[in-house]
Design a protein that fits this description.
alpha/beta; Aspartate Aminotransferase, domain 1; Aspartate Aminotransferase, domain 2; eight-stranded mixed beta sheet; four-stranded antiparallel beta sheet; 37% helix; 20% strand; disordered N terminus
Length: 410
């Protein structure tokens, strides 16, 4: 296609991606049709979560309010805050607070984003090019999977194995790595299973990436919501080519702030900052003010303790419900996160089941087939008990009423 002017890039029809490659010391461009797959997980929630009576599809913890977080003096200071742009990569003190969550990191190793979804997007656009390959540990949130495929990257899946406690077979992972592999990506703690790898397994995964000199990405938005034991380690502290996304929406129970971040090698973070010039430019000054305060160690721990209390109590409620309905469902209990991945025994597609529950019972869950795992549904355990309990009762009522119609093998 040769050197082009901005006018040459104005095209009709499908969205087109223009990629730049270095060829004989000159920049040339390759044009490729970009096919963006529907992000079915987000689409189902976006369509119905605000209209259904009982929304049990969320994977975070019931949100807190500003009055829960700020003192009277801080609220007064917030009201006097000038609503300027600020730093487009995140206010320095906020980046310092985030960097302090990891070993030997500084503000240049962090970029603040509008939620962790933007962080994932910037990571893909910074590290990957058409023709690259990535290995995705699934089930997974699948945003990276979808966006990487849209720009011409080949995505290979390694399944977490239910019989292994939702852990991967690392030998299988090794077999999928080729000279074209640029990145391994994992959601850890896992969405939707709530699985947490041991430190030994995390190091083994990091070693595989190091042996092949490829990036290791971890979406760590559920880090801090572990139901037992200490907070799990970050992959960022285990390997020098690790890059992680995180934010305040899940374990920290503050999705309305829309604050996320990308942390990793400074040169990768700078590349992400360059690409952020094309997306949201900056995050909200109000949100950054609050975020810097909630990431101070004492308040952060208070928020996480609240989250864990809610999750433990609701997991106990869910486990009792599973036991009482063992003819219809089973559960490998989550170790972290605001969700559980429930297996059901009826011979009906999980999306069909989800819509039937929504229409007939006013309850929204998330179907397993948005993760490529039919026969399961994801249910949130971070909502108030008075919300979860009647929702579970309606689900069991539906399953019992429809056992004959949908019995496996019937």
């Amino acid at each position: 296609m040769g050197i082009v002017s901005p006018r040459d890039l104005e095209v009709d029809g499908p969205v087109r991606a223009i990629y730049r490659f270095l060829n004989d010391d000159h920049y040339v461009y390759k044009e490729q049709i970009m096919k963006i797959e529907e992000f079915t997980l987000e689409r189902i929630q976006s369509l119905y979560e605000n209209t259904v009576e009982l929304n049990l599809s969320d994977s975070g913890v019931h949100p807190m309010s500003l009055n829960d977080l700020l003192s009277e003096d801080e609220i007064a200071e917030l009201l006097d805050l000038e609503l300027g742009y600020g730093w487009t990569n995140g206010e320095i003190s906020l980046r310092e607070s985030i960097a302090g969550l990891y070993d030997d990191r500084g503000p240049d190793d962090v970029i603040v984003t509008n939620g962790s979804a933007e962080a994932n997007f910037l990571m893909v656009m910074s590290l990957l090019e058409p023709g690259d390959e990535i290995v995705v540990l699934t089930p997974n949130y699948l945003q990276i999977w979808g966006w990487a495929r849209a720009i011409g990257v080949s995505a290979k899946a390694v399944s977490l194995r239910e019989e292994l406690g939702w852990e991967p077979d690392l030998e299988e992972l090794k077999s999928l790595i080729t000279p074209k592999t640029k990145l391994i990506t994992i959601c850890h703690p896992n969405n939707p299973t709530g699985a947490v790898l041991s430190l030994e397994k995390m190091r083994a995964l990091s070693d595989i990436a190091a042996d092949n000199d490829i990036y290791l990405h971890a979406d760590e938005v559920y880090k801090g919501s572990e139901l037992e034991g200490p907070e799990t380690a970050s992959f960022l502290d285990l390997y020098d080519k690790s890059i992680v996304t995180n934010g305040l929406s899940k374990a920290m129970a503050l999705p309305g702030l829309r604050i996320g971040w990308l942390a990793g090698p400074a040169e990768t973070i700078y590349a992400a900052w360059q690409r952020k010039d094309y997306t949201s430019i900056t995050t909200s000054a109000v949100s950054e003010y609050v975020a810097e305060r909630v990431l101070r160690p004492k308040l952060r721990q208070k928020i996480l303790d609240r989250s864990k209390k809610i999750l433990r109590e609701n997991l106990s409620l869910l486990s009792d419900w599973v036991d009482a309905n063992s003819d219809h469902v089973s559960l490998n209990p989550p170790k972290a996160g605001g969700m559980a991945f429930v297996r059901y025994f009826q011979d009906v597609n999980s999306t069909e089941l989800t819509h039937a529950l929504r229409k007939e019972k006013g309850v929204l869950i998330l179907p397993g087939d948005v993760y490529g795992l039919d026969g399961f549904f994801r249910i949130g355990i971070g909502s108030p008990r008075e919300h979860l309990e009647p929702g579970l009762a309606r689900i069991s009522d539906y399953l019992r009423s429809n056992t004959k119609a949908h019995a496996v093998g019937g």
